[in-house]
């Protein structure tokens, strides 16, 4: 069982920055492909970014590429999402997600709200 705990959401003005954190427990991040998703009110959940279990592959959704950066600190089993140049369209609940390598096991955090005011 993997437990994911997000933090770092909040309210920011357009053009501002936020950094989200996701702490994993139960398995090391070196066994997990870690991803961020988001879901805005009334919309479907959207892929934001991912880092592979090797830590060597980074993937981004089209709407955030060039503005957001995903990273991880293996020693702390924590991943981060640095969000820069935020716009109101980035307003959503952001969810941390983990895929256990070699399995179909998938885990979700509880989500953290990000609100960008115009």
Q: Could you explain how this protein is built, in words?
A:
By secondary structure, the protein is mostly beta strands. It is 0% helix and 54% strand. The chain contains no helices and eleven strands. The protein has strands at 3-7, 10-13, 18-25, 32-39, 46-51, 58-60, 68-73, 78-83, 92-100, 106-108, 112-117. The protein starts with a strand and ends with a strand. The model has no long low-confidence stretch (mean pLDDT 96).
Order of helices and strands: EEEEEEEEEEE
Number of helices: 0
Average pLDDT confidence is 96
Query: Runs with pLDDT <50, length 5+?
Result: none
Oligomeric state of shown chains: single chain
Fraction of helical residues: under 10%
Total number of strands: 11
| Largest pleated sheet | 7 strands, mixed
Taking all Cα atoms into account, the compactness measure Rg is 13 Å
The share of residues in extended strands comes to over 45%
C-alpha termini separation: 40 Å
Which of globular, elongated, flat, extended, rod-shaped describes the shape?
Answer: globular
């Amino acid at each position: 069982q993997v437990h994911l705990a997000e933090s770092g959401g909040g309210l920011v003005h357009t053009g501002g920055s936020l950094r989200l954190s996701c702490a994993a427990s139960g398995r090391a991040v070196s066994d997990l492909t870690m991803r961020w998703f988001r879901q805005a009110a009334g919309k479907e959940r959207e892929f934001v970014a991912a880092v592979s279990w090797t830590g060597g592959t980074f993937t981004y959704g089209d709407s955030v590429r060039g503005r957001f950066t995903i990273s991880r600190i293996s020693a702390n089993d924590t991943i981060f999402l640095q969000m820069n140049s935020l716009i109101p369209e980035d307003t959503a609940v952001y969810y941390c997600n983990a895929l256990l390598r070699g399995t179909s096991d998938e885990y979700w955090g509880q989500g953290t709200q990000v609100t960008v005011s115009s």
